[in-house]
Amino acid sequence: MVDVVVIGLGPVGATLANLLGRAGISVVVLEREPAVYPLPRAVHFDAECMRVFDAIGVAPALAEHCRVSPGMKFVNADGKLLVDWQRPEGIGPQGWNSSYRFHQPDLERILRERLATHACVDVRLRSEVFALDEHADHVQVRYEDLSCGALREVRARYVIGADGARSLVRRMIGSEMVDLGLHERWLVFDALLKRDWNVLGEHSVQFCDPARPATYVRGVDNRRRWEIMLRPGEDAARFAQAENVWSMLKKWITPDDADLERAVVYTFHAVIAQRWRQGRLMLAGDAAHQTPPFLGQGMCAGIRDASNLAWKLVAILRHGASDALLDTYQQERYPHVSEFITLAVELGRIIQAVDQDAAARRDEMFANGPRRLQSLSPRLGASALLLQEAEGGAISRQPTLADGRRMDDAAGNDFLLLTRGGAFSAAQCEAARAAFPWPLRWIEDASESTRQWLDTLDADAVLIRPDRYVAGVARGGDALRNLTASVGAALGVAEAPVAA
């Protein structure tokens, strides 16, 4: 029996398997397809995702294939700017750029290469799962080996469905989808430039034209993407034909400028599964939630799922934490991803206004100037693992420490307690450590970036979880002891290990 079976080897499944594999968790990954899908799908991820990829050990290799994005503009049919979303192009407070463009096959290849370095991870391609039989202490996963037709099985303590929008695991859980109110068909086509072309610049552009809403995305290297909304009743197959695609693009680009790589119709959805867990079965990524692409947060949400879930599975499987810890997964992630989807739906209504009167009313809303959109950074939903009244649930900054290391490198896979130098006595430190039943890395740091962050938090110490979210902050020895004791009790570990 293995610790975890991950169903699906897309970016979310591969990220989760890597996070578990680095901690020595035995994993079997079951993937129906024989190889990485060669065409582009997701095209954006953010600084938080890059921190997860850095934890896996692939950030430097991945960065070579990425392009920093300056942001997105929303313009109406007359070219007037309605919404301006500028993304800082320098290194941000999380230690990475805020927005990256990428080519999904590159990411998946890099993640799979990293998986191959983990002896405890077994990837089985061409494996189609057809049954999940739950037992008291394990799940029996039955699947077909599509290479030969043989029926096989594997037993696991936990099963994670990272198996996409049509998730088998979600059907087995019996979880219905909560409809957040957006379902529209869009034609997505990717082009490969054959010569210099920069008509639309470096920003992504949302063309809020009621005659035909459209999106332009500046991809990596010579890749460019357009998305065009289809009207009800329009024939998707006909619109996807090359001559019709070029007809819709002719005001920007022609076949002399680029080759059409693919054209496909997607229905953009805004939905969240009601339940993400049943016993030993859990959902992640599109199996748990789907969002319109107007914020570029679809894959990002799944990567956050993987990061949240991975350390909790490690806590249970390696450190003796209570199985009830997994109940915090949906508690924390559901409200968080809901905020992103809600904003994406709101922006979708701006973009997809096809009635002329509605579009005129929309434009009037921005008569005094464009809306300046700021990147969302919501807190996680309330759980026993977070002190909500003291910055708990916010994504942490990543200061550069006085010894030159970045904070995440110093934290490794563990909780990190970052404190001002000399803020606590030896007795206070010992009491705080004794109250925490998990390997705890404690760093007293005198760097300017740490001081500024702690000043912002009005704290002497910040406790950071393995997924880089703030568990809580403390000022003074008693508060520090209460912080580690509260979070430690929520982990439900019977005995405290030796502190790191």
TrEMBL record:
Signal peptide positions (record): none
Q: Which residues form a coiled coil?
A: none
Q: Which PANTHER family match?
A: 3-(3-HYDROXY-PHENYL)PROPIONATE/3-HYDROXYCINNAMIC ACID HYDROXYLASE, FAD-BINDING MONOOXYGENASE
Gene3D superfamilies linked to this entry: 3.40.30.120, D-Amino Acid Oxidase, subunit A, domain 2, FAD/NAD(P)-binding domain
EC numbers listed for it are: 1.14.13.127
| Name of the molecule in the record | 3-(3-hydroxy-phenyl)propionate/3-hydroxycinnamic acid hydroxylase
Q: Which gene encodes it?
A: mhpA_1
Establish whether keyword Oxidoreductase is in the entry: yes
Taxonomy-wise, where does this protein's organism fall, top ranks first? Answer: Bacteria, Pseudomonadati, Pseudomonadota, Betaproteobacteria, Burkholderiales
Spell out the molecular function terms from Gene Ontology.
3-(3-hydroxyphenyl)propionate hydroxylase activity; FAD binding
Organism equals Pandoraea pnomenusa
Q: Set out the biological process GO terms recorded for this chain's protein.
A: 3-(3-hydroxy)phenylpropionate catabolic process
Annotated ranges, domain FAD-binding:
2-341
Keyword terms, alphabetized: Oxidoreductase
- Give the highest taxon in the source lineage: Bacteria
